[in-house]
Write a structure and sequence with these properties.
Blueprint: H1 2-29, E1 31-36, E2 43-44, E3 48-52, E4 59-61, E5 76-83, E6 89-95, E7 105-125, E8 130-133, E9 146-151, E10 157-162, E11 176-195, E12 200-202, H2 208-216, E13 220-226, E14 232-239, E15 242-244
Antiparallel strand pairs: 1-13, 2-3, 3-12, 4-11, 5-6, 5-7, 7-8, 7-11, 9-10, 9-11, 13-14, 14-15
Length: about 240
């Protein structure tokens, strides 16, 4: 009985060592890419802090990416990536077939198509200048409404509310555009939702809120190591000059 117990413990130790060694090999030999992320910060008291991650390539604009295929839910797909000026990778095309040649791609699973609206809002600010903003949504607002937009350094919308409203969200950047709505354009588009198996990352307890703040400032990137078949594994979170591994 004692020998059987020892054998079981040894087998478990060997299995754990193999898993760790394989992960290290994957990280060391995989192609490194950066993805833009929009994490939230759920808490699990039994596992400490972790960040749930979602990427800008988690919803593919089917009018913007190259594809003629229709994808069923849970179907394996391959998203060909293209490096952008900021060093992160965006989606170039999506297909059922693994891309040929030396293209960079990531493997995922289709979750189904959804139709969403994109918004373009013209705001006449308090100085009389017309500014064009692109919030994630703008339903319920109309021309003439007095509004306050919280924006980042590139005028990307973080949040917004009606001026003098009882519900006012804090602005982490302290950069606000106050004025009145001059025009609203809503465009409906089809998106393919995708999961990549890299939707969470454990961090040191107490760091979750810091990462969430970095997300709100548009200053969070995720480093991913890709295998030859496009499967990815997270190797770090990057917030400005800080790297968490």
């Amino acid at each position: 009985m004692k020998i059987k117990f020892i054998v079981i413990i040894l087998l478990q130790a060997i299995l754990l060592t193999c898993i760790i060694a394989y992960r290290q090999y994957w990280v060391a030999t995989g192609e490194k890419i950066l993805l833009k992320s929009a994490p939230v910060d759920p808490r699990d008291i039994f596992r400490g802090d972790y960040v749930a991650l979602r990427y800008d390539i988690s919803s593919l604009d089917l009018d913007a990416v190259t594809t003629k295929e229709v994808f069923a839910p849970k179907e394996r797909i391959f998203v060909t990536l293209q490096k952008r000026a900021d060093g992160t990778c965006g989606a170039l095309s999506v297909s059922r077939a693994m891309p040929a040649g030396r293209r960079t791609f990531i493997q995922g699973r289709a979750l189904g198509e959804t139709q969403r609206s994109s918004w373009e809002v013209e705001v006449k600010d308090d100085g009389g200048t017309i500014q064009t903003l692109k919030p994630a949504w703008f339903e319920g607002y109309k021309i003439g409404d007095a509004v306050v937009f919280c924006v980042d350094e590139k005028n990307g919308v973080i949040n917004f509310h009606k001026n003098n409203s009882s519900y006012q969200q804090p602005c982490p950047t302290q950069k606000m555009i106050t004025g009145s709505v001059e025009g609203v354009v809503e465009t409906k588009k089809k998106f393919l939702n995708v999961e990549y198996g890299i939707d969470s990352f454990f961090v040191e307890e107490g760091r979750g809120r810091v990462i969430e703040s970095s997300r709100n400032l548009g200053d969070l990137k995720v480093e991913v190591s890709l295998r030859k078949d496009g499967k990815g594994i997270i190797t770090g979170l990057i917030m400005g000059d800080t790297v968490l591994r």
